[in-house]
Amino acid sequence: MNKGAIFPLFYLPPIEFFSKLLQYKENALLERAEHFPKQTYRNRACIHSPQGKLDLIVPVIKGSKVHTKVKDVRISYDFDWQRLHWLSLQSSYRSSAYFEFYEDELAPFYEKKFDFLFDYNEALLKVILKALKLNIPYNYQDIYEKEYSDLVDFRSSIHPKINNVASNRPYYQVFDERNGFIPNLSIVDLLFSQGPQSGQYL
Question: What values do phi and psi take at 110, rounded to 5?
Fold first, then answer.
């Protein structure tokens, strides 16, 4: 039997996140107590735009000098990032095979305002797991531990600056001919391209 794993919670997570979550679905924990690290997938998703790789970043309210637990990080609405993200998703994937298939499920996340990043990411995660037809129960880790002997720790290994070779298997992308295949993008890139076959790819 696989030992369990602890995961950070990401915004529209990369494909790698879901392949690992599937691997450890018997005992998956979401980290709620870590201090919020900058420049990670926690508030960033990478999509395939007409110009190539594009980062969509959810702005967060800058905490005071006291470190903020990830579950307490608030989303900033100083500018209309929701409209910008939705327009970017539409311009990147409107011509993909399955964008319209999932559009109605995702659109509300770019209209409704959530206070906390963790709640926003988790609500999105539930919609994506349903779209992938994956039934993966998970629990929460509410006490921060720097290291684990009994869990595989993905809190810092799934990162924009770390290339994961396992997620590099090509599938058709909308702008393949223009930009070539871009690996390990947000799960929405796979969903909009592969639709119901996405779970099999994972």
Answer: -110, 15
